[in-house]
Amino acid sequence: MAHQRKIGLGKGLSALLNDTEDIKQNNQHPVRTSLDSEAPLGSVSLIKIEAIAVNPYQPRTDFDAQALNELADSIKLQGLIQPITVRKVDQQQYQLISGERRLRASKLAGLTEVPAYIRTANDQQMLEMALIENIQRENLNAIEVALSFQRMIDECHLKQEELGDRVSKNRSTVTNYLRLLKLPPVIQAAIRDNQLSMGHARALINVADIDKQLYIFQEIIDKGLSVRKVEELVRLVNDQGHRSKGKGDTKRKPLTFEFQKIQDDLASKFATRVKLNVKDKKGKGSIEIPFTSADDLGRILELLDW
Predict the structure, then answer these.
(1) For the structural domain made of 13-121, what CATH number should be given?
(2) Strand, coil or helix: what is 115?
(3) Where are its TM segments located (predicted)?
(4) d(Cα 43, Cα 19) in Å, to the nearest integer?
(5) Would you kindly state where each structural domain of the chain is located, as residue ranges?
(6) How distant is the alpha carbon of residue 147 from its chain centre?
(7) What's the DSSP call for residue 101?
(8) 100: annotated active-site residue
(9) Do residues 263 and 276 touch, judged by C-beta distance below 8 A?
(10) Could you say which of 38, 70, 100, 161 is catalytic?
């Protein structure tokens, strides 16, 4: 028979899902099995894993295998402490709102049923709740956070101030994350893969020119520069840019939008500063691709399929 059982949410998640009243209900009602069709919405029920479909709006696709196995081992010993959250699709089918990592680990642990909060939510609410839960995870990299922020703005139609309120961040923090998505793809990938810290990234977004961003990025990778060193290098590069503009350089005309885009794309491809020299209206000119070492040259030649 079902027995009295308290199941609490992790820190911050109860506030996120507004389940304060649900928790009070759970302390008054037993955990129900998925066969109990009269289970009240918001209560904790044991639901068959095979009846739960993954949330199509889940913004996170990368799950660390070792961390999943460690969670699965814990679940084998202690059970699933923190319930997942689902919405009811029909009488015996559910769709995951939040807790995909816990659900995956439960499958690895061999569970056939998991405790779950049952909620009503439309697709818009599902997306917003999944994104907010995803953002509040501690092990997300900065690009994952930025992408989630951008999705909330684009798909949930939120302004930056509203987004900040939803995720308990001030507007400047939200803005800094969103600006990461304007960095060249090679730098975004390095942030995603934890080759660059958020501190490095914050320094790089203060550089306006993409080729200069890539130059500094390569210096970070080659020399293992600290955040403080990168901030100093950024100030130096920006100061040099201001001085060169003040001199009124008439030898080299500014590139057209089309040529500037080509230069930026090449710099992104080769992860180094690329200079496109256009000499006349017919488009005659040259491309300069600098390299810092024999290994760096080899890397560039490999990209050129040399």
Answers:
(1) 3.90.1530.30
(2) strand
(3) none
(4) 10
(5) 13-121, 141-180, 206-303
(6) 5
(7) H
(8) yes
(9) yes
(10) 100
